[in-house]
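Hey,

The postdoc asked me to send both predictions to you directly instead of through the lab channel. I've kept everything plain text so nothing gets mangled by the mail client. Protein one:
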Amino acid sequence: MKICVTAAAGSLDAAIDPRFGRCAFFIIIDPATLEFKALPNPNLESSGGAGIQSAQLVANEGVEAVVTGNVGPNAHQTLSALGIKVLIGASGTVSQAVADYRAGRLQEAAGPSVSGHFGQGGGK
C-alpha cells in the first residue's frame, strides 16, 4: 500500500505543504515500512489545472490515499473519481503525518476544503 503526503521538501523530516495541487513535493510512501520516494511537483508554477494534473500524477504512482493540509475542488473531484481517499488537516512533518495516518487521526475530506486557486496567491 502507498500513500502520498504533500511536503515542502523531499524528506520525511520535511514540513507538510498545506497545498495539494501546488505543493513543492509529493512523498510517495509505504506507511508500514516507511520506504518512500520524493517527487518534485511539476505543477507548482502551473497557470491552471494544477489540482487535476497533480491528482493524475499521484494516481499514476498507485497511491490509495492523499494526506495534505487542504484540497481544492478540482483536485478533490479528480482524486475521488479515481478512488483515492483524501485526508486533510495534516500538519507538522511528513513523518508525523504518516503516524497520524496510521493512528486514524486525520479527517477524510467530504469535499474541497479550500476554493480553487488556493496557494496560487489569489485563492482564499
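Protein two:
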Amino acid sequence: MVPDPNYICSVEKPEDFDSFWEDVTKTLGNIDIDISCVLDDFRSTEDISVYEVFFNSLDNIRVSGWYAVPSKYSGKLPGLMLVPGYQSDPPIPREWAKKGYACLSVNPRGKVRSRSQFDPGYPGLLTYGIVDRNTYSYRGFYCDAWRGIDFLLDRDEVDSERIAVTGSSQGGGLTITTAAMRKEVKAAAAGAPYLCGYMDAIELTHTYPYEEINDYLRSNPGSRKTVEDTLSYFDGISFADRIKCPIIVNIGLQDNVCPPETGYALFNQIGSKNKKLYEYDGHGHEAGRYIHSRIVDEFLEEHLGQE
C-alpha cells in the first residue's frame, strides 16, 4: 500500500506544551554543565584528535560523548552534533572530523558510558515512566541531546554561528527536537525520524521499538489515555512547528520501523520555510542512507560551509 503524503497523525499538541518545556529547560539551565573533555591518545590519529567527554544534564545525570576535531585547522570550525539511534552505540565521529567539522557524538542517559545513574535497558527506554510527563525517560533524554549544543558552544574552536545536528531513526527524532528547542542550530538533517506520531505508529507497525508501547498497554490496559497524554508532550510532531532553521528529512517508503505516514505528518508540520523531504521508494528503515549521505554532506556544506 502506498503511504499517504497527506496523512495527519492523531497527536494533539497540549495547550501547555511550551510552558512545560520552558520549565524543563529552565531547570536544565540552572544545572552546572561541568564539562570534562580529555584527549584520548589511543583513539586519536595523526589527522584527528579524539576526546572523551562528560557533562552534567537534567537531574544531575552525568552524560558522556565522543568529540573529534581535525588535528590541524585554521580559524573557527563548524560544529556538528551527531545523535544516536535507539539500539546503536554512539560512534566516534572521526569521519565527520575528516570533513572539517568539530563533531560531538553524544551518548544520552542509558547509552554506553552514560549508564551508571540511569539504565532502563533496551527494550525499556521507550516506556520508562510513561504514565507521567515529569518522570518519562525522554524528558531527560531530550535534555541530554540539547545540552550537547551547550558543549559545542563552550568550545573555543567552534563557530557558534555554524552549528548543525544530524541523526537517523531515534537520531532523527532527536534532531527534530533539538532543532526545535535550540535556536543556535543553523541546519538540521533528520533521517527516518522516530519518536514522531507514537500512537499512530503503534497501529501502523508492530515492530520494535514501538511495539514496546503495545506490550505496555497489553499489560496495563487501563493506561492508554494517560500514555497518550504523556506522549503528546514528547512527540516530534508537537515540536515541529518550532523549527525555523533549514532542514532536510529523508524517509523510506517501505519502512516498517518508523512508518512513512508519520514522516509525512511530521514534515508537513515543520515550521521552517526552508525544508525539503526526500522519499526513497524501495527502501526500508535505512531510508536510502547510502544514497542520501551525499545529500546530507552537500546540505551541511551549503549551510555551514568553511570559513
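Summary for protein two, as requested: The beta strands are 36-39, 48-56, 62-70, 77-82, 102-107, 158-168, 187-191, 247-252, 275-280.

Thanks,
C.
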